[in-house]
Amino acid sequence: MRFLVAECEPPQAREKRRESVGRSSGETYLEVLHKLAPGAECDRIKPTDSCAEIPGREALTEYDAVFLTGSPLHLWQDSPEARRQIDFMHRVFASGTPSFGSCAGLQVACVAAGGKVRPMGDRREAGFARRLVATERGRAHPLLDGRPASYDAPAIHTDEVEALPEGATLLASNRVTRVQAAEIRCGEGVFWGVQYHPEISLREVAAALRRQSDDLLEHGLARSNADVEQLAQQVDALHAEPNRADLAWQLGLDDQVTVPEYRTRELRNFIEHLVKPTRAKRGR
Description:
By secondary structure, this protein is an alpha/beta fold.
């Protein structure tokens, strides 16, 4: 199989993430995809960069899947970076290549297909999205195959989908963010996406908490930087020892987050239930 990872991070955010966790969002995706699909050929591009060469429709048809990463990019702002990312997604839809996105990746697909994204205001999901529940349509959708009736997932975002495009299917919600998972069809393309982050490790969750410490204080989710650091240290410790029941209990987490095979379930489902059947239809 041949995969293309499209990094939604602008250059400054990409380097800031590398400083805190050692890799960009696209590099995280590459590592996870190599584990989920050993032997797959994976390329990475950076559509937000002004100097980036964006593949056209025909070039995109040579891939079996396209993955869009998370990012602090605000899709509700008219910026050159946002326009480049949305233009890239238009090409993905036109190519008919199956696509998947997490966090900003979902928001990019939504806007490109005619939906809307907005800032969350004072609400936040920082660290983990709690009590995610599939909709009636979501319970039968292969993206969420194997997920329990209610589950948690890594999540870090300050924007959300305000309105899905026409014809999209809402698959999961919680009390903080209505659109947590969705299927979007546009032109020849099919996109499956989630607002949370099935691709990131607990170590990356801890790093994200540290990067967003000031924002957490501003919105009353922590009283001090020391509070944020204490939480990040617990998450780091659980990453190092995922079988520690005491840390999982203190953080209110179960195996849906602590076990990598469960945490990455949506990515695995996308490859098994959409990418491989589409590849077979194309005679590859």
